[in-house]
Amino acid sequence: MRIVITGVGALSPLGVGVTALWEGLLAGRHGIRPVTTFDASGYDVQMGGEVPGFEPADTMPPEVAARFGRTTQFAIAASRMAVEDAGLNDPGTWAGAGLCLGTTMGEVQELEAACAGQEGRLRRYPVSQIGAGVAEVLGLSGPNTVIPTACAAGNYSIGHAVDLLRDGRALMMLAGGVDVMAEIQYVGFQRLRSMAPDVPRPFSAGREGMMVSEGAGVLVLEPLDTAIARGARIYAEVLGYGLSCDAHHMTAPHPDGAGAYAAMTAALQDAGLTPEKISYVNAHGTGTPANDRIETLAIKRLLGDHAQRVPVTSIKAMLGHTMGAASALEAVVTALIVHHGIIPPTTNYLGPDPDCDLDYVIDGPRQKGVAVALSNSYAFGGNNASLVVGCPPGR
Q1: For this structure, is 115 an active site residue?
Q2: Least crowded by CB within 10 Å, which of 28, 35, 61, 101?
């Protein structure tokens, strides 16, 4: 069964909605600002990527929003945007759809509030509440799963949704990822000394680290014949996905990129494609010295000589690392790249690193038809997930 992407929704540090995300990326804007969610003045780094202008009441009644934490509010908003973008204007057309969301921290702000003594907040903490909240507000009655595989969770969720559709266990799926800014992960990355002082600089010489951010990305996935029958706009086709867990280290990638290579290889096998068919890579690209070097190594191992002809970019240069939302937002952007034939740049580049010697599109957006794209995500614990997205039929 062929699975296509017919709707996308997004909240990102560039703003509310897919238009703010896409136009911001093409313009080379970054969404990194002084953190306002909590008092960061006592930390070495005070910057982060928060979603500006988000008002829960724009996508749900205030009394409904009041029952949910910010993570669930994000997920509801991005899901509603996705179904509207897919042209599903009648709730009855998506009532039987399923939902699969990825997250790293879940309703972490609710946990922090409970630990600070605020009564009644802990009951909103379990990650299952996120999926339940979206299903309740949108009226979804299909399979409902939340996958907490850290920063690769968005791609894991998209892969699971594809499986459900292929197996005929769902007629339509909403899939993606979500996470919000909270002090606990901010402190954690500060203690790991893995945060950049100002902005992330993926694949650049002198890069110093990643940037903690928040966001949500959701895609509507459905069988090709269903999409054609209802006259849907098709952004792209999900050709395959691959997962791996190298379990090398809790926070560090495998030194040979074994896990990354295995996930990319599995994704191509699932898609029935050879490496030479890849025409663009949306990289995990966190901006840390280790990740960017090892991801480059893994891509070169996969693509061989072809690697020098393939553009590789990281939108984390502008968004920061949105945790469980990262690969979901990257999947949204990859679908838009395939649809529009434009590749956003990798910004904040200071100069070449001998260990990062691929084409990172550093001089602004590039007009380029992308027939087959590979989108990578890697996570703590050695969890790796890659997604292969291509042009829909007829393009």
Answers
A1: no
A2: 61
